[in-house]
Write a structure and sequence with these properties.
Layout: H1 10-23, E1 28-35, E2 41-47, E3 55-60, H2 68-82, H3 86-93, E4 96-100, H4 105-113, H5 164-176, E5 180-186, E6 190-193, H6 205-223, E7 228-231, H7 232-235, H8 243-249, E8 255-261, H9 276-297
Parallel strand pairs: 3-4, 3-5, 5-8, 6-7
Antiparallel strand pairs: 1-2, 2-4, 6-8
Helix pairs in contact: 1-2, 2-9, 6-9
The structure holds N~2~-sulfamoyl-L-arginine and zinc ion (ZN).
Zinc ion binds near residues 63, 66 and 185.
Length: about 300
Amino acid sequence: AYGWTDYYDLNETYGYLQSLVEEHPQHVALYVGGRSYEGREILGVKLSYKEGNPKIFVESGIHAREWICPALSTWILNQLLTSTDSDVRFIAENFDWYVFPSTNPDGYQYSHTTDRMWRKTRTPGTSCDGVDPNRNWDDHWNEGGASSNECSEIYAGTGPFSTVETASLADTITELNPTVYFSFHSYSQLLMVPFGHRYEMANNYYKLLEIGNIAAVSLSKRFGTQYVVGSIIEAIYEATGGSMDWAKSKLNVTYTFEWELRDKGNYGFLLPADQIVPTSEETLDSIITILRRVSLAL
Ligand code: 0X9
Ligand code: ZN
């Protein structure tokens, strides 16, 4: 059975989403967020307790080998549905959640069957396969921190939205027009806000940074895990054509945050499964802090 003491492959993850719909039909529905090169659905759920809530889009697992991301996303869904904690109930019931645990399904499956360290999509190339789905969005595409070389891990693709995963996800996000955008990656313990293309500030950079800083304090309280907060280019490196930069600059999503989850390189992408629950717990603490502040501002 699905749980959080182990990592699960794509079918098991999608099976879990299905089981949530069966167990909580009034609050959960499947939601197809896009499709993959190999024809898989980018499957997510809509979780909603009432009408008229602001929307949260959760983009998780866009990089195949970052296995903590799908695991954390389903753990959070389970909390939103079953927790009796008043903070969790508040964020569950006062937002509509669109959660996509594995936004690169071909790559995720490939990382289970063939190459544990696979990062990109499985879009075929001439000499090497795969596009970096966090360099393929239509915002300052391939202007820096990205590559035109097919064989690069940060290959930007042949043009903006050249691969169907990012193009179809972008359509879904545009249609939903969320108020909040959360993106989950690993690893490095960073909480980032736009942008990654240059030293340019988001229109609400100081607000995002202020919220991010208090969220990182909340995150640290449970186990002492330290996060660095900043814009992408400050906190990590230059990276163009990323999803969050697109959401901020093209859709003007107000609250945009991107986590690089545990750890800081000891295990890296191979984070042991016994860290799924603690990682998820502390991350949910930061999410609660963010959403408490968001709902005060709305
Ligand atoms: O390089 C990336 O895509 C991210 N790091 S990772 O190790 N998970 O691959 C950081 C990306 C920064 N974010 C954006 N450019 N949106
Ligand atoms: Zn990543």
